């Protein structure tokens, strides 16, 4: 559906209902395969989500009722369910329900850390380096309050490296704990830190407003726009102009006079956003993740060329070498390691959020921050149209099929289908009976006009293919063919081939024919083959012979 069709239809519905239009992009968690088995009614309840794990095979999500669920492989008890059992179906984390999560981060163990609206910090999962901050190295199977030195503090943001954690308080203080082999805890030594300890040194009496972690380093942005880094620096990811590790925070002097407002860390590279919408990058660059047009590491901040577009967000994740950014106009750029390819300069995408970049191109395809899903009160135009399908409240036309009603809008049907444009211009009827097609097929057709997708199992898509041929809906015909292909089997291959020939679906016909050839013995033993139309059988044998199917 073209953009002007959406606007025309939505304005029609808006005027008809007298409602205000609130169009805000909603995140589609379905882009992450770990959510693929969740039913639509469950997906609609999700308001926050995070995907993590070595293969993006673990996830947590929060529902509209503030219930917290987890699913996945549960490595090191990182799902917080009290055991080590993997689960393909969501299980509730009772201790977190009602806590109102405001920040979430994870390590590569993995361990998981959250901050709540009340400023509390909970941690669980892998704890081999005391990254849970509880003074032990025992893995945590359930979320536990991190209390040492934090009970009188309100934490607003947490960030995790591979095996260390840092937390930001409302006072602008940073606390750190866990693995410290390179000084990433900022304590002035390389001894692991078993409980939260305030990062002071150069940060003493300063107010931090944003934090991030690479695998083995930590970054902090101050309220005056300065940026500090500490920890591992062999790739120059601290931006100090050298490759020496730092055990305490060091200011990035090269950005003197530049006002940084956000920092994001990849595996071994760093991105920083300025108040003028510029991006600086430094660190490892073997995959082009700095966006400089080459693959040379940079130990000093380098400004990225973004065609003078003002940037409003930078994105990176310590598990990957992928980078992304969003412009003020809503465009999303990506660079770095993208599905195995090295993209050395910012590449314009069709995505609407930086989250989409990590879902589709990062390895692993984890989330780079806690995803927030907008309330159902705020819907995109496409989502609003989908919601109004078969809604009797504001419809002005209904179809009667097999004794059942389907409620629709004349304006939408005229815009979307030439058949209905002609039909509805000739009649003022508010009810039309349909006898040629079944209710299931006709409803799927009308729903397609609202959503651009078809919601039918492959075996029922043959009827919709018949309808698409009759109404000369070329795109729908193509979608039907793709749906039918996904459902082909040895038992139904001949039936689908017959349908493809009948409806002149050439691409589907060729697909079914090749499937039959590749499974010839099994296909020829089916009842459908025995009942095959004589002319079709004759043509099938002739074509199969030309393909050499009957040669010894």
Strand order of the largest sheet: 4-3-2-1-25
Low-confidence stretches: 10-26
Helix content: 10-25%
Query: What's the CATH H-level superfamily name of one domain?
Result: Regulator of chromosome condensation 1/beta-lactamase-inhibitor protein II
Description:
The chain has about 550 residues and is α+β, with helices and mostly antiparallel strands. Among the domains are: about 25-200, Regulator of chromosome condensation 1/beta-lactamase-inhibitor protein II (Methylamine Dehydrogenase, Chain H), CATH 2.130.10; about 380-545, Potassium Channel Kv1.1, Chain A (2-Layer Sandwich), CATH 3.30.710. A hairpin with a 5-residue loop joins β21 (about 310-315) and β22 (about 320-325). The longest helix has 15 residues, at about 5-15. It starts with a helix and ends in a 6-residue tail after the last helix. Keywords: Repeat. This is RCC1 and BTB domain-containing protein 2-like. It comes from Echeneis naucrates (Live sharksucker).
């Amino acid at each position: 559906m073209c953009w002007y069709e959406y606007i025309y239809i939505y304005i029609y519905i808006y005027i008809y209902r007298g409602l205000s239009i609130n169009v805000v992009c909603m995140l589609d968690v379905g882009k992450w395969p770990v959510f693929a088995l969740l039913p639509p009614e469950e997906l609609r309840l999700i308001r926050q989500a995070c995907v993590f794990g070595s293969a993006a095979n673990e996830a947590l999500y929060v529902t509209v009722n503030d219930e917290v669920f987890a699913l996945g492989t549960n490595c090191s008890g990182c799902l917080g369910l009290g055991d080590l059992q993997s689960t393909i179906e969501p299980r509730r984390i009772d201790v977190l329900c009602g806590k109102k999560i405001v920040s979430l981060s994870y390590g590569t163990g993995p361990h998981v850390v959250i901050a709540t609206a009340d400023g509390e910090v909970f941690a669980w999962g892998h704890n081999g380096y005391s990254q849970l901050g509880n003074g032990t190295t025992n893995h945590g199977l359930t979320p536990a309050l991190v209390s040492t030195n934090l009970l009188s503090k309100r934490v607003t943001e947490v960030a995790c490296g591979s095996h260390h954690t840092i937390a930001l308080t409302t006072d602008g203080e940073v606390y750190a704990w866990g693995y410290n082999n390179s000084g990433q805890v900022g304590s002035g030594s390389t001894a692991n830190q078993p409980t939260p300890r305030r990062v002071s040194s150069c940060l003493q009496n300063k107010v931090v407003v944003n934090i991030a972690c690479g695998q083995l380093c930590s970054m902090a942005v101050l309220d005056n726009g300065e940026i500090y880094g500490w920890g591992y620096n062999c790739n120059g990811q601290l931006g100090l102009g050298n490759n020496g590790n730092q055990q305490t925070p060091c200011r990035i002097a090269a950005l003197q006079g530049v006002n940084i407002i956000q920092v994001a860390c990849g595996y071994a590279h760093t991105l920083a956003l300025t108040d003028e919408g510029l991006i600086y990058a430094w660190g490892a660059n073997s995959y082009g993740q700095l966006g400089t047009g080459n693959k040379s590491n940079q130990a000093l901040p380098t400004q990225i060329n973004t065609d003078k577009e003002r940037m409003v967000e930078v994105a990176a994740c310590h598990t990957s070498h992928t980078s992304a950014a969003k412009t003020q106009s809503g465009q999303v750029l990506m660079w770095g390691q993208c599905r195995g390819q090295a993209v050395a300069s910012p590449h314009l995408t069709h995505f609407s959020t930086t989250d989409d970049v990590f879902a589709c191109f990062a390895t692993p395809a984890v989330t780079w921050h806690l995803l927030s899903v907008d309330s159902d009160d705020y819907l995109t135009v496409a989502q609003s149209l989908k919601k109004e399908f078969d809604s009797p409240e504001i419809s002005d036309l209904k179809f009667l099929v097999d004794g059942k009603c389907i409620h629709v809008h004349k304006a939408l049907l005229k815009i979307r289908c030439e058949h209905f444009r002609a039909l509805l211009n000739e009649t003022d009827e508010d009810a039309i009976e349909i006898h040629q097609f079944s209710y299931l097929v006709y409803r799927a057709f009308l729903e397609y006009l609202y959503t651009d997708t078809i919601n039918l199992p492959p075996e029922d898509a043959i009827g919709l293919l018949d309808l698409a041929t009759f109404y000369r809906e070329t795109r729908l015909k193509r979608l039907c063919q793709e749906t039918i292909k996904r459902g082909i089997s040895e038992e139904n291959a001949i039936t689908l081939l017959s349908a493809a020939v009948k409806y002149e679906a050439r691409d589907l016909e060729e697909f079914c024919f090749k499937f039959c050839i590749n499974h010839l013995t099994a296909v020829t033993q089916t009842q459908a083959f025995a009942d095959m139309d004589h002319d079709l059988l004759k043509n099938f044998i002739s074509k199969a012979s030309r393909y050499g199917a009957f040669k010894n």
